[in-house]
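step 4 of 6: structure.
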Amino acid sequence: MEKAPGEPVRDTVRAYGAAALGGRLRRLSDRTDREAKALYEERGVAFEQRWFPVFNCLRSGEPMSVTDLADRLQVSHVSISVIRSALEKEGLVGSRADERDGRRRVLALTDKGMALARQLAPLFDALDKAAIELNAEAGDAIAAIDRLEDALERKPLSRRVEDHQG
Amino acid sequence: MEKAPGEPVRDTVRAYGAAALGGRLRRLSDRTDREAKALYEERGVAFEQRWFPVFNCLRSGEPMSVTDLADRLQVSHVSISVIRSALEKEGLVGSRADERDGRRRVLALTDKGMALARQLAPLFDALDKAAIELNAEAGDAIAAIDRLEDALERKPLSRRVEDHQG
DNA sequence: ACCATTTATGTAATCAGTTACGGATATGTC
DNA sequence: GACATATCCGTAACTGATTACATAAATGGT
């Protein structure tokens, strides 16, 4: 091993500071997703991390439509649509047209889905605790990200750049 | 407009807390990337935000190999390889085999690349300032993300989960 | 010099999200 | 009731990253 595992590297990346933030966020996200995925694999459960937000919303028992979920989770409806197919294919979720509005497709956990929810509850719980622990160790990174989102909403990057340079 | 643009939504997402962190980071990253992209388009410059880290490394004048860049920027060498092709296709970067090690391909800005670097310098500068401003407004979110990376390196998510639940 | 192993790079396949667009249903106005 | 418009959802194409695999060059022990 000729150089430290990543130290000089990391510092260099950090020196780019804010400019490279986007990429760093992406990589961090990929990393946590991958790690979570491995946890399901270890347990031999046919469940994918990217299903979690939808699955978790439905766990409450309240049926929701595709767009409801998209709005709540801040993703495109297409994304939800794809996750829905996957969850239905696994038999974890069922859907039917809304009686009052035929355009809406209402999703709910199947019996199998509810059983899996119960089975995975301890894991979800552990995941949640681990994430909370992680966040605490990082000095409430979530709050910082909240503030970042707020700041961007208040004034988008483009306008900030314009203000700093015609 | 039947409900506030995103308020109840945001709070709900936040309530998921750490568990949904991965997705939120991804979305935030996508957003900043898109906004930055628009800035180049506005100026009619054929430049993409994802080239920036590589381009910026080479701006110093020091030639670097694909793997050098990958190590420094913490991305896969494949990613660098693809960016290299794009930058060469645009004529901004040139490459040649290392004289001492034929496996290595050494990259450097072309004259056109250096000209663009000079032309975009004010924009890069403004971007940097905007990002610094943003970061300050968010109470140093970058530091929080650094701490998150550190914490994950210290003890990966998987082990944390195991510790919270057999 | 020779062969095994490691390193640097590239190509192909995959993945999880997006935008673009189209079809079906609701809604509001005449 | 009919037509214009808006909303819900889905399919297709694109994006930007990754892993898996392949190739070429260097290195080291014999």
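step 5 of 6: annotate
 - Residues 1-15 of chain B have pLDDT under 50 and may be disordered.
 - The beta strands of chain B are 64-65, 93-97, 105-109.
step 6 of 6: archive
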